[in-house]
Every structure is written in C-alpha cells, then in structure tokens.
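Our working data are protein records whose layout never changes between entries. Getting from the letters to the tokens is the skill we practise here. To make this concrete, we reproduce a full record directly below:
***
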Amino acid sequence: MTTLKMHTPNLVDSNIERLAALFPNCVTEKPKTDEQGKVIRDMNGEVVLERGIDFELLKQELSHSVIDGSQERYRLDWVGKREAIVTANSPIAKTLRPCRDESVDFETTGNLFIEGDNLEALKLLQESYLGKVKMIYIDPPYNTGNDFIYNDDFAADTAEFFERSGQVDGDGNRLVANTESNGRFHSDWLSMMYSRLKLARNLLADDGVIFISIDDNEQANLKKICDEIFGSINFIANAVWQKKYGPANDAQGISDTHEHLIIFAKNAKIWKPILLKRDEKQLSAYKNPDNDPRGVWRASDLSVRTYSANCYYPIVGPDGREHLPPESTSWRVSEAKFNELLNDNRITFGVSGTGRPMQKKFLTEVKEGITPQTWWSREFASDTKIARYEMKELIPENVFDTPKPSMLIQRCIEISAKDGIILDFFSGSATTAHAVMKSNAEDNGKRQFIMVQIPSLNDEKSHAFKNGYKNICEIGKERIRRAGAKIRQDHLDNADMDKDLSHLDTGFRVLKIDTTNMNDIYYRPDQYNQDLLEQLENNIKSDRSDEDLLFQFMLDTGVPLSLPIQRTAINGHTIYQVGGNSLIASLDYIDANMVNDIAALNPLKFITSERAIATDSDKTNIKERFKQLSPHTDVRFI
C-alpha cells in the first residue's frame, strides 16, 4: 500500500542536501526549534539536534578574504582554519612546463610526474581533472615534531622565510620545520592538510575514493577534518596496517607496530569496494567429498550466538543421534527451512555421518571474492622492512629512509581501481607510481598515475646527496625509471606471462610548476619607457617554448595533460597534435596554406600564438577560414 505524503516536499531539506553536495564541510548540527523559536528537548531534557548549514562557514567559502565569526557549533576549530579555506580558493598565476629530457616516453605515456608545491599543483589540475580521479593515495608528513610541512604564507618575503625556516628547496618553495616548540604545532599541520584535501576532493570522480596513511599523532584530527571536507556519511573505514613484525626495543613507552589508513569515498552511496581474490589457502577450504554435482563446498556452522525460540529444535543425524544448538544459542534457520536444506542435500553431518549438522556453502554460490577488512596484516600488505629492501633493490645506495611498500598501495588499488587515474600528491619516493605499474603488469590494467612532489633538498651529508640526488624528486623519478625497466624484464622472464607488453605504460611525463608564460602587463604610468614598450609588443615571456604554451593552453581549457602528443611538420613548420584531433597547435608560424591543411584534419580545438601571426587582420582571416572549412573547430589565440 502506498502511503500518501499529505504535504509538499520540504524545500529546506532539499536545499540543505544540495549545499551539502557542494560544501560538505558546511554541514553541521544545530539545536532544533519549534515554530516559536524555542529549543526542543527530549524526554530526558537533552537538546534535540538537527542537520543544518553553518552559514558563517558558507560565507567564508564564498568570500575572497577572511571573515569574522563567533557562533558556537559542533566542529573542529584551530587558528588559521579560515585562512586555509581562503588559501584553497585563491587563484594563482602559475603554469606547468614540460621537461622532455627528464621524461620517459614523453609523447605516448599517460602518466605524469609534477614537480612543485602540491597546493599549486592541485589548483592547476582543477580544470583538466575535475571529477576524473578514481583513487587518491597520500602519505603526508605525520607531524611527529621532526617533519617539514608546507607553509602557505604567500606574502612572506625571502629574507623572512630563511629566518623562519632555515630551509627551502632548490626553487625556493615554502617548506618549513614544524617542531613541537611551535605554538601552532597542530594548527599549522591542520591548515596545510585542510586546503589540500579540499582541492583533492574536487578531483575525485563520483565513484572515487581516497586513502590517507597516518599514525596516532594526528589520526583523530585527520578523521575530523575529513568528516568536514568529504562529509561524515562518506567515511568508509579506518584500516589498521601492521607496519612492523615486532616491537622496537628502544621505544619510549609502548612500541607502535601499526599505522592507520583513513578511507573516504567521494560518494559512499556510489562507491563500493572491489572484492579481493581468494588465495590458495582460502580456496583449499572448498572440497567435494560427496561428489556433489554443484561442485566444491565448505561446511559452515549452522548455529548462531543469539537465542531464538523459533530456531531452537532438535536435529537427528543419520546415526540417530540428536543434536541441539550450544547453550544460549539457536540454529541459523527455522525447522521448516532446515528440512528444505536437508532435502536439497545442503546439510552435512561429516564424511562418516556422525558429526554435528553443518550447512554446505558452494563456491559457485558465494561472492566472487572476499570482502576487505579493516585489519591489514604484514602478510596481506607487506611492511616497512620489505619496503626498504624493495627500494634498495632498485637503488642500492640507501637514498630514502621511509618508503611505503608497493604492496600496501597495490591493496588500495585492488579494492578500488580496476582502471582510471590514481593520484598521489605527497609522492615521496614514488611508491604509488611503482604500485600502479606493478598492478597493470599483473592484471593487464591500463591505470594511469599522477605523482606530485615538492623538490625539497636532501641534506648534503645524506647518502642521497652524496650519490647525486640533489632533491627528493630526483629520487622519485629515478625509482620510476628503474622500477619500470625491472617490471618489464620480470614480465619477460616469467614463463607464465604473456610476452606482449604493448599495454604496459612504464613512462612518465615530467611537468614543472613555474610562473605563467605571459608577461606582466600591469605597470604604473611612471614605469613605462621605450624598452618596456618594445617588450610589451609580445605578451609571451622570451624564455618560453612552444610546448610551454601548449601545456598552458591544455590547462586553461581542461584538456587532459596525459593525452598523447605527436610533433609533426606542415610546410616545414612544427605543429602539435594532442589526442589525435582533439587539439592541434601551431605556435611559431601560421599562414593561409597551413590553415587549409590543419582544417582538413577537423580538429576539435586549434590554437596559435600572437607571435605566430603578423597582424590583427590575419587573426580574423584565420577564424573565417576555419568557419568555412571546419566550422566546429574552436579557434583560440594566446
């Protein structure tokens, strides 16, 4: 029977749901009031709470500057939280510049390695990768008092920065020590994470998921800010990973042998974990001693821990013995259901017929895999000792102290991403890239990775620096090169593996964050002189290449940076074809004949630069010619 609602929809609740989808961090709990505005209490005198919107926080999301507010509510607060929101929402004048020399298979690879501040990288990826990332894994600084964290004070000048931090990377990026003596020890870490996670959420696909490694120092705070950013209803699990086999004898207090994996979905109603494959040990539990035509089965306990009078009855076995459930328990099914199972040969009393009654569970009728659990043992996901061996096998010089095992991240991939883009914006030694390539080699997958790492300097006394690795990025890139080569060789050496490696992408495209390619055109009247006027004739900086301009255009127009790029020539002039005919660029020269040839390729987008044309009338002519020959082409000038 259908129940009539007898009222129109509650538009307030509907509007709250819509705002929650856009700004889950603005959803809060507030006291419920009656029509007279009085707070409603339950029979015990407790204030009744209802879901609502934190309007002060919503104002902050929609403001370019920090706003004041004092309303009390249930939420995690710290000094700098509002600045973190402003930081996440503020635009930047940066770009990504390609570096062919440091890349592998630059033109064909779908993988990216981005060097620079991950806050800036996440902002730059918003157009091209909005809602397109299948899985994110990050292993951020744990805030133990010895970590370096990102300082997002864009106003700090160089002298102040050196005085405050004592360290920058090779490009002057903002990386500062966060010691326990810092009065904002937790606040600075929370601000760093909050702004980055806000931007990362935008990149996740609707069926996407994020895994965050963390230890006990900030686990509780991290869970709370993720509840705000992703919405507490999208919390999936706090998996505990056994990172060590035994205790550390030099530990102060209790030796920690675990870390956490905080897991949130973009939308928990859509995301579901992929079942894990049964291993040989699990499959060996299924046998067929009675040659049942339905195949192998295992015996399952017929009793349950709770008592139900309807399910408490005697069962008589083939040998005449009477069986009852254990004390204070009952059978799993009613007597009528039991007789159905018995008549269908789904009950066993053991091979001899003298055992307790058990239900036969056929392998063909159970789930196709095992549901993931929150306990990740070292046998399941490896440990830190294996991670160090794995790293030294690739780079023997002991250049990175705290890598994660690739198997840990492979397990994340196994339950969340059969395909798609996998992002790690604290990539460190690039374990995630290694894990993606290994997973693709094992299951013929076509996953792609995006690694982001700030090029923080290695200590001059470290093994890494002495062996030629100036910064962490150099370690990560070299690991990907060597891991890719090893995976290919191992694949070829394995007799059971298909020798066709055409599907396996072990390349990566290096992109480095830099200032915009365009000249600054904002000057005071008294700054103009003849030299400056001559410089302003070209709006593009003199040190920027055609490929620099190509990638900035791809960023600005939302073209994926991982599309294949083919560099060819027309009439002796270089053109770039991105993703076939998705985008064609001619950035050093363009004339009428070239326009005809390019239009014949029917590109979706065509770009050229101001420096490639002589006059404004040429620009008009190019547009008109495309309208005639390829009217659907979007023509742009930079």
